[in-house]
Each structure stands twice: as C-alpha cells, then as structure tokens.
Amino acid sequence: MTTQDISKTASDDPTLYGERAIEAGSLITFPNPRPGREYTIDITLPEFTCKCPFSGYPDFATIHIHYVPDEKVVELKAIKLYINSYRDRHISHEESINLIMDDFVAACDPRSVTIKGDFLPRGNVHTVIEVAHQK
C-alpha cells in the first residue's frame, strides 16, 4: 500500500485542496422539494472567522441562518465553503453579516430569512449582529 500526498495535484499546484474548494465555492441551490409547503430550515455554522479591518486580529463567530425557502434551497456544502471564504477577509462584524444576507438572498430568494452572527468576545466586548429579510 502506498501513501499519497493529498496537498499535491498532478499539476503540483501548491494550493491545498481545501483552499481550492473554498476559492471556487459559490452558493449553490437546488429546487425546493416542497415549494407549496411553508417550512423552516435552520443552519448553524460554528466556525466562522474573519479579520478585524482595523487591527487584523481574527474574529470568531457562530452564524445562525433561519429561513423559509421559496423555490430554491441552499446546498449545505456550498454554504460551508462560502462561509469559509471569509477567513482571510478584513471585514467588520456588521458588514460580514449584511454581506452574507445579500449573497444568500441573491442565491436562493427565500420567503424570509434571518441571519445572526454571534461573535466571541474580544477586549471584553461581545457583539451579536442580526439581519432579517422578508419577501
């Protein structure tokens, strides 16, 4: 049995496979299997990271998405990769949650959605940002 270096590809791209997946990621949707029924979907993403636009220090949060789909549902692996794309962005708590909302609504146009970012305390300050959208 041989071992394989999973960080390498045939083209010897130095970018790791997870980094390539995050870079190529986008919010993918699929048809709602029950478009005539109102139901909710709750997604929790506990490993959100971004960087403070002023200090460059990392910020950590849990993102909560609560939505009622209309015609489309967001694919879970796609939302995971999309959220991971924030890890190297210098972006405020407020802008990150509002941008996630904008991209989420553009991708799946839900009946309603609430997105909350619960950021870990830093410097004795705990921040929770919540935005809502309704058709």
From TrEMBL:
Pathway: tRNA modification; tRNA-queuosine biosynthesis. One of its GO terms (molecular function) is preQ1 synthase activity. Its EC number is 1.7.1.13. Substrate binds at residues 74-76, 93-94. GO terms for cellular component: cytoplasm. It catalyses: 7-aminomethyl-7-carbaguanine + 2 NADP(+) = 7-cyano-7-carbaguanine + 2 NADPH + 3 H(+). Coiled coil: none annotated. It is found in: Cytoplasm. Keywords: Cytoplasm, NADP, Oxidoreductase, Queuosine biosynthesis. Gene3D superfamilies: 3.30.1130.10. Catalyzes the NADPH-dependent reduction of 7-cyano-7-deazaguanine (preQ0) to 7-aminomethyl-7-deazaguanine (preQ1). Belongs to the GTP cyclohydrolase I family. QueF type 1 subfamily. This is NADPH-dependent 7-cyano-7-deazaguanine reductase. The lineage of its organism: Bacteria, Bacillati, Cyanobacteriota, Cyanophyceae, Leptolyngbyales.
